[in-house]
Amino acid sequence: MAQKLETYEEKRDFGKTPEPAGRSRTRRHGERFVIQEHHARSLHWDLRLERDGVLVSWAVPKGIPTDPKRNHLAVRVEDHPLEYIDFAGEIPEGEYGAGKVKIWDSGTYECEKWRDDEVIVTFHGKRLEGKYVLFRTNSKNWMIHRMDPPADPEEDPMPEHVVPMMARLSDLPRNDRDHAFEVKWDGVRAVAYCDGGRVHLESRSLRDVTKHYPELRKLGRELGSRRAVLDGEIVALDEQGHPSFQRLQPRMHLASESAIRRRMADTPVTYMIFDVLYLEGRNTMALPYTERRALLEQLDLNGDNWRTPAHHVGEGKAMLDASKEQRLEGVVAKRLDSRYKPGSRSGDWLKVKNGMRQELVIGGWLPGQGGRSATLGSLAVGFHADGKLVYAGNVGTGFTQQTLQDLLARLQELERPDSPFEGRQPPKGTRFVEPELVAEVEFRGWTTTRTLRQASFKGLRDDKNARDVIFEEKLE
Fold it and tell me: What is the C-alpha to C-alpha distance for residues 145 and 294, in angstroms, rounded to an integer?
């Protein structure tokens, strides 16, 4: 199977790359292996086996599987010289395979079978132990399969979908020292599934939003071979570094990749990571907040488009005051001993807001008057109670011209002849729509009949199911 080294040499300029030329052709006896983590254009792992005086090589995009239930693609690449077994460094930009190379593991192997289409070996490395088979599927494409039992028999399966844990609306807790306080970020919630250097993002309604935020894919490269499920908030920061939900709006609703790429330049996003739900084969959701937080901070996830914001134990009022001064939405207080409860809106987590904001369902709209006669004037909104949509008032401010245009087009597609509201109804002349869109609304307060006072539109939320929108009562 071993090829000659001409292909390896033809692809490289050894005056520019620090990779070994391997011109000596020294033949060594032994069966060594190396796995190199290669941060090239696409992160992958290079598996190299010493054989017939060269390193027979495969590029493995998602790393070496540790469980026999998972097979990974392995692409056969050109043979490398034996000197490459110790190579680690930076391949310069413009050269073949440009990017950082580091040794992920090395050691020896025992060969049981070596054919042109199948290789069976047992690895003895620092990180990798066990029997594997590499088998060719077509041309350069192979698969690598673990033949032994799982490397860690007690490994927990990685969760496929997690509905995020939510916070209850409240004032600051009385038992200040029993809570950690974090900034409440004005963005959209997202759970990140990181595996084999790849990232998959889901909204709190379990919708796949990975393609909407391409800049967050680099987080997978940062984690490398570490498998993790992270919880956080995607935000768009304004010129002062403050999160702005309205600024994020254009990124949330784009469909085409070209439009998303254009928006990345003027509206980049940042993933504020505040929890870890799974890490390196362990489901961490049953651990108390303090232990999960310690694991998260050990990951040191702070890059161009992601951060692990600080938290503070106690000092809730001081942090709330500081958040108000910085025009932030508020704080979240989390009990230090709280477990992560997927899908729960628990009193273990409390959100304390500087202003009043809530998600509400759009059930209709009124045409505008005067300069807005050709578009909408206000939205009729409501919340669910006992399975019924209850009218909660109209929202008539906070719209930009672009918002008015885009929103009207979506509402016209959802028109229906009758009202979706039960009981009290919006004003005469309201045009009703299917109650599918969820609006984020800022307001001054509620009347005794639970009607909004001085409401302003902040944006649409497509990360929440309209059926889940209820009246948020403050936890006493």
Answer: 34
